[in-house]
UniProtKB/TrEMBL annotation, chain A:
PROSITE patterns: ACT
Coiled-coil stretches noted in the UniProt entry, renumbered to this chain: none
Designated name of the protein: UPF0237 protein RF007C_07820
ACT domain span: 4-78
Species, as recorded: Ruminococcus flavefaciens 007c
Recorded family membership: Belongs to the UPF0237 family.
Pfam families the record matches: ACT_6 (PF13740)
InterPro entries, per the entry: ACT-like_dom_sf (IPR045865), ACT_dom (IPR002912), UPF0237/GcvR_regulator (IPR050990), UPF0237_ACT (IPR022986)
From TrEMBL, chain B:
InterPro entries noted in UniProt: UPF0210
Tree of life domain: Bacteria
Name of protein: UPF0210 protein RF007C_07815
Matching SUPFAM superfamilies: PFL-like glycyl radical enzymes (SSF51998)
TM region positions: none
Record Pfam families: DUF711 (PF05167)
Similarity comment text for this entry: Belongs to the UPF0210 family.
Lineage: Bacteria, Bacillati, Bacillota, Clostridia, Eubacteriales
Species this chain originates from: Ruminococcus flavefaciens 007c
Quaternary structure, from the entry: Homodimer.
Length: 89, 452
């Protein structure tokens, strides 16, 4: 099972570090990261493996959302199925 | 394979374009709760609903978190209560409504639908008792929805029921006049009612359905409008294609959520309702889609044609996205729940007559329309009869949800708040249809051939 973490907002020091730190805490493996910085807007999409997640997925979602609020970024953590079902037949 | 564009598109749809799952609705059969003692029946009803739907809200919230998509309502539909009332027709039928309210409170759901009767050909035991109790039931409960089916293509229109429903709608408004006449906002009069509808106020769990199942109703007018905005010069068939593609994506969400809810709750998956359901929120309006197609304002000439195309494209796109489609499926046009419709009605561009024409080509019917408080029950009945005739002849579901604004007249507004929105009082004709309505009897079922 995989999930997608998207981070959009103003670039600051240590975003990737903090997001992946939370992943590590929950035993969630980062599979792939795509990121771009346009002017000072930061956009990152991270594909993570949640098969062996420690604790509840909803807890991880809560932590990520809280981190987003703290850093003034928009962070979404969603199960990959939503993207797969919407965009492929 | 996932790509960045697709991921960002999904997030934008949810974040900026009001994409949501409008409802997951659990249909529960109450046929095994029938008892000649109404108190025993009520106890069985309460226990059955709570045992089946106790985890519905929690499960809905879990899915919301998992997929990051809002599920606005968690609802329950039940077997038409008139069938249960048939076993105890001399008891106080409102007890069933109070029981449903108690179950709604325990489960934490937004609505329970099914305080209903099916009388398209005539009244059986329990039907009359239930219908007469509707105004009181809607007055003493908050989250219970009621519906009555008064006609069908196969059986014609029961004009005795039409006459009665005019009185019931008016009475429901009078009883709740102190709460902006909220009573009739929870009451739908149908022709060709469907048995697996997840949307309120007309949801009930038909007798041909399984013991328990999960339906999903999707939303997304904002997404369709945003998609059209990108193609200001597209031809109409290009627009139809864009709508189809968008409807496909929206419906896939419904299919995903329904399948997941069914798995988590251990209940069979019923249907996805391929719907475009507006809310009063900015950017969530069906009227604005029609305006995006090129109408200066919804309700002007051309509205029916635009809506017909929109409705058809939504179905064509949605039907491939889901394994089981049903319910009402199509675009909804509830006036008070749609910011664009409200504006058009206030401006006098959208009239009752135009809405009636629109209902011939879209999902349901005259929905959430506020009429002057002095409207006679006969006029309400006549509006119901007109609308039912459209449904009967065209073999489609039509419905009427009129709200007589007691003490108010044209130019005033009723404020319901929340998803129900606010509605301007719309003008009606002042000539009486009373003689026609008071004749009673039945409009015979229409020809199914010689279609002209």
């Amino acid at each position: 099972m995989r999930a997608v973490v998207t981070v959009i907002g103003k670039d600051t020091v240590g975003i990737l570090h903090k997001v992946s730190g939370i992943c590590a805490e929950y035993n969630v493996n980062v599979i792939e990261v795509t990121q771009s910085v346009l002017q000072d807007m930061f956009a990152m999409i991270m594909l993570v493996d949640i098969t062996d997640i420690k604790g509840d997925f909803s807890e991880l979602v809560g932590r990520m959302t809280a981190l987003g609020t703290e850093l003034g970024l928009s962070i979404h953590t969603m199960h990959e199925d939503i993207f797969n079902s919407m965009h492929s037949i | 394979m996932l790509n960045v564009y697709n991921i960002l598109e999904t997030i934008r749809m949810i974040q900026d374009e009001c994409l949501d799952i409008r409802t997951i609705t659990m249909g529960i059969s109450l046929l095994d709760c029938i008892d000649t003692d109404i108190d025993k029946a009520c106890e069985k009803v309460y226990n059955k609903i709570v045992s089946k739907a106790g985890n519905l809200v929690k499960t809905g919230q879990q899915i919301e978190t998992e997929y990051g998509i809002p599920i606005v309502n968690k609802r329950i539909s039940v077997t038409p209560i008139a069938i249960l009332a048939a076993a105890c027709p001399d008891s106080d039928t409102v007890k069933f409504a109070k029981t449903l309210q108690r179950a709604a409170d325990t489960c934490g759901v937004n609505f329970i639908g099914g305080y209903s009767a099916l009388v398209h050909k005539g009244f059986s035991a329990g039907d009359m008792a239930l219908i007469k109790s509707i105004p009181e039931a809607l007055d003493v409960t908050q989250n219970i929805c009621s519906s009555v089916n008064i006609g069908s293509t196969k059986s014609g229109i029961n004009m005795d029921a039409v006459k009665l429903m005019g009185q019931i709608v008016k009475e429901a408004a009078i009883k709740t006049a102190d709460r902006d006449c909220i009573g009739p906002a929870k009451l739908v009069v149908f022709c060709n009612a469907v048995e697996d509808n997840p949307f309120m106020a007309g949801a009930f769990h038909g007798v041909g359905e399984p013991d328990c199942e999960i339906h999903v109703g999707v939303s997304g007018p904002g997404v369709v409008r945003a998609a059209l905005t990108k193609y200001p010069d597209a031809s109409i068939n290009e627009i139809a294609d864009i709508i189809k593609k968008t409807a496909f994506k929206i419906t896939r969400m419904g299919q995903l959520v329904g399948a997941r809810a069914s798995e988590l709750l251990g209940v069979p998956f019923g249907i996805v309702d391929l719907s475009l359901a507006p809310t009063p929120a900015i950017g969530d309006s069906v009227a604005h889609i029609l305006e995006e197609m090129g109408l200066e304002m919804c309700g002007t000439h051309g509205t029916t044609a635009c809506l017909a195309m929109l409705n058809d494209a939504v179905k064509k796109g949605g039907v491939m996205a889901s394994s089981t489609v049903g319910g009402l499926s199509g675009a909804f046009i509830p006036v008070s729940e749609d910011a664009g419709m409200i504006d058009a009605a206030v401006a006098g561009v959208l009239s009752l007559e135009k809405l009636e024409a629109m209902t011939a080509v879209c999902s349901v019917g005259l929905d959430m329309i506020v009429v002057p408080g002095e409207i006679t029950p006969e006029t309400i009945s006549a509006i119901i009869a007109d609308e039912a005739a459209i449904g009967m002849v065209n073999s489609k579901t039509t419905a009427v949800r009129l709200i007589p604004a007691i003490g108010k007249k044209e130019g005033d507004t009723l404020e319901f708040g929340g998803l129900l929105g606010s509605g301007p009082v719309m003008p009606i004709r002042d000539k009486s249809p009373a003689k026609f309505i008071n004749r009673g009897g039945r409009i015979p079922a229409p020809m199914q051939s010689l279609k002209n």
